[in-house]
Structure formats: structure tokens, C-alpha cells
Amino acid sequence: MMLETLNPTHYNITSLVPDTMPVATVPILILMCFLFLIWNHEETSSIPGPGYCMGIGPLISHGRFLWMGVGNACNYYNKTYGEFVRVWISGEETFIISKSSSVFHVMKHWHYVSRFGSKLGLQRIGMYENGIIFNNNPAHWKEIRPFFTKALSGPGLVRMIAICVESTIYHLDKLEEVTTEAGNINVLNLMRRIMLDTSNKLFLGIPLDESAIVLKIQNYFDAWQALLLKPDIFFKISWLCKKYEEAAKDLKGAMETLIEQKRQMLSTVEKLDEHMDFASQLIFAQNRGDLTADNVNQCVLEMMIAAPDTLSVILIAEHPTVEEEMMREIEAVMGDRDIQSDDMPNLKIVENFIYESMRYQPVVDLIMRKALQDDVIDGYPVKKGTNIILNIGRMHKLEFFPKPNEFSLENFEKNVPSRYFQPFGFGPRGCVGKFIAMVMMKAILVTLLRRCRVRTMKGRGLNNIQKNNDLSMHPIETQPLLEMIFTPRRNTNKNQGD
Ligand code: HEM
């Protein structure tokens, strides 16, 4: 049209070419222009990473994510191209960052409060513009986050300590439910049950079938992990997504039933004040018309799945000297009684053990964000809409720590400046449960250690335990059976359930 307007006599492109030039030259010229454009496009990007290569680069990089898994692909790219890399996911520019100054910049600023993920994938698991974890609509997310902040701080946080102690003792008394035929403990299952029970007691308060829900949560995680970065074409093939859709429906259905029971309960109780927990607050917000039923359901679901497996407990088995050190501290601080909130700041070795476990064997090694405006990070231009993956797992092994590739409490002997260690993320979209998570991990670990010695099964030491889940938010080990041997300690007092 432009050619026509500017030069009506010459709008036929072949007539621009001298008669002597064969007609076949035109497509070749066009192709060369096209290649020149692509070549120029590649050269303009100052950020290290694989080449665009006529669109093959984006295909290969997305393929790599699907084939290797997000975690392995990120480590591969950072290792190959450096700590600030540009790749593509679903054709969208994606930066993988493991440099502490850049990670700090992203976490700190409000224009990175969104995340990214396949819209269709998130819709299938109920997270699209609902709940908090992958709610990528900043306005909706802002309305939801205060419900979580309130429930995970203040009086709830203090109450959680006693709940964790009680629940750990209760579950240790029922070890037979998680014991394999060979007589070993499936510790992953045990931890999941304790986490679910404590979360239920504090946030929902409705009796539930633990083993059934634990299984549904596991399947939900698998679905989340599988669908988060799938290309749209995957969702066109219904039999491929069916299994995942059903897993999501299953857990959502179970939550719906529990929330309905909660509604019934709230309508009959005398003193509402005593039942004003997280779920009640959401239900009342729905009654006021502030939240949809779907959103309430998703928020409760996410709160119940958020407490990740504190699997790092397995490290005790490989580090008996650390275990002894912790036991000495526990005895010195608490003597014969169980843990209370005043003890928390005095358990320094336990705290460093948890930090070192999260650093060395992280439960969350990637954080996904999206740039909501143009920016410059450490000299690299970032366009609005760019996807960002913060590779904190790698970052924690690259900078500052004296023994980065070893599990050693020496790594936390000196005060670690916050920019070098961010297992919970930070800033406006940081982990909303970071304080309660530390409290839960300390309370459960101390209660467990006071009663049992934990050992991995002979021949299945830590080196044999593969982390094969790399979800960017709350990953869990999908190792089906992590078996351990629990031996009761002789010196714990009688009334503590040992
Ligand atoms: C070892 C324990 C935990 C670790 C390492 C962890 C880590 C993280 C990380 C890295 C993020 C992303 C932060 C960011 O984008 O900057 C996150 C988000 C979140 N965490 Fe945790 N977390 C833990 C425990 C918990 C617990 C116990 C809860 C609640 C019961 C919780 C609730 C959440 C929620 C709701 C979000 C999403 C926040 C948002 O998007 O606004 N986390 N967590």
C-alpha cells in the first residue's frame, strides 16, 4: 500500500528490477534482506546467550527447558554463558540471573512483582489470576497478599510453635503409618503429614484425611510442575493434559468440600472471635462480595500446600558432628522441656544448620518474575514484559561463602550480608511465610531431634538422593521413597511421647 501511495507506477516490485536480472533473483534478494535483518537483530542484543538464529534459538531454548527441566536448563545456561543470560521461553525473552547484585535489584523493586507462566497451564491448575503464588495480575495479587501476611505473622506465628511440637509428637507416635515393609520410615511422607496437619490447624481448622490429601497435594505439584511452561499447543491435545487436569480438580474438589464444612461451622458457632482464622477471613471477604468463591478456594489450597517439605533434615544423617553440636545447644537452651517462642533466638546452631541446608540443598532454587516496565539491570537493558528467572540456588554457591560446595556451618559463622543469601526471596513479592517457615522448621527439627536419631538407610546416602523437582516456587522432592531409620533417644523424659 505504501509503495502504491508513494509511487503508483512502480508498485509491482518485479518492475523495479532491470530487465536483464532473472526473475528468480527477486526472492533471493528478499531472503538476503531477511537474513540481514535477523543478523542485525542478533547483533543488537548485548546480553550473553544463545543466538536467535532465524528463530531456531528460541525453539531450542524452550526445548531445553522442557527436556532438561527448568532447574537444570537454567544452570546449564548460566554455566555456559555467564551469570546474566538471555534465552527464550515460549518465544518470549527470558533472562536467567544468578549474580547477586542483579538478583537484589529485581527483588527490591515494585516493577518486578509479577511472575510468568503459561496462561493455559495456570488456568488448568486454578492459579491464573487467583490465589497468590502465581497470581500474575498485580492488582488482584495486591488484594490477596494482606490475607496471607496477616495469617502468617503476629499471634498466628507464636501459636504455630506449640502446634508444631504437638503435631510432631503425635506423628512420631504413629510412625507405623509411614513405615515401609522393610521397617524404615518414609520420611518424606512423615514430613508432609506434619506440615499439612500444622497448616490445617492454624489456617483452616477442619478435620481431614491426611494421607488422602497428602497424595492429592503431591499430584497437584506434579501437575503444576508439568504445565507451568508448556507451549500452548500442548493444551490442544486433550489426552496429554487430562491426567494433570484431573489432579488439579481432585485437590480443588477436596478443598471445596473442606471450605463448605468451614462455612457450615461458622454459621453455627456461638463465639465467632475464636474461629477467626485465615479461612474464616476469606469466607467473610467472599460474603462481603470482595472475593469470588473460586479465589477463596484457591487461596486456602495454596496456604495448605505452601509449607514446603523441610527435607533438609536428611542432612543430619550425613553430618553426625553437626547433629551432636545441635543436641548440645538444644540441651543448654531448653533442658528437659519442649521448645517455646523465647527459645527461638537462642538456637543459633540450629538456625545456621537450617540456613546451610537451604543454601546447600535448597527447597526453592528458582524464582520467576516479570518486568512490568523498561529498566536497566547492572548495565543490561530490560524491556517491559521480559521474563526473569532468578537462579538463587546457583547464586548461593557462587559468591561470598567460604566453602560454597560443601555442607559446612562455617559458611554461616560470619554474618552473611543479605544480598548474598536470599532463600526466601525478599521485597514486595518475597516469601510471605518466611518467618513462620523458620519457626516451623526450628520447632519441628528440635522436637524430632530430642526424640530420635535420624539415619539414612545404609547404601542410600545423600549422594543417592536426586532432587528431581525444580518448580520455581515451592518445589518438593518427588523421590517416591526416602527411607530413613529413626532410633528413639534414651535420655528424653517420659511424658514427651518417645
Ligand atoms: C523452607 C521454607 C520456605 C522457603 C525456602 C520458601 C521460599 C519461597 C520463595 C523463594 C518464594 C518466592 C519469593 C520471591 O518471589 O521473591 C516464596 C513465595 C511464597 N511463599 Fe514461601 N518458602 C518457604 C516456606 C513457606 C511457608 C511455610 C509458607 C506459608 C505457610 C510460604 C508461603 C509462600 C507464599 C504464599 C508465597 C508467594 C508470595 C507471593 O507471590 O506474593 N512459604 N517462598
Automatic annotation (TrEMBL):
Pfam families: p450
Keyword annotations from UniProtKB, A to Z: Heme, Iron, Membrane, Metal-binding, Monooxygenase, Oxidoreductase, Transmembrane, Transmembrane helix
Spans traversing the lipid bilayer: 20-39, 51-70
CDD domains for the chain: CYP19A1
GO CC list: endoplasmic reticulum; membrane
A GO BP entry: female gonad development
Domain of life: Eukaryota
Molecular-function GO term, any one: iron ion binding
Cofactor(s) of this protein: heme
Residues that bind heme: 431
PANTHER family per UniProt: AROMATASE (PTHR24291:SF43), CYTOCHROME P450 FAMILY 4 (PTHR24291)
Family, per entry: Belongs to the cytochrome P450 family.
Protein's name according to its UniProt entry: aromatase
Organism annotation: Egretta garzetta
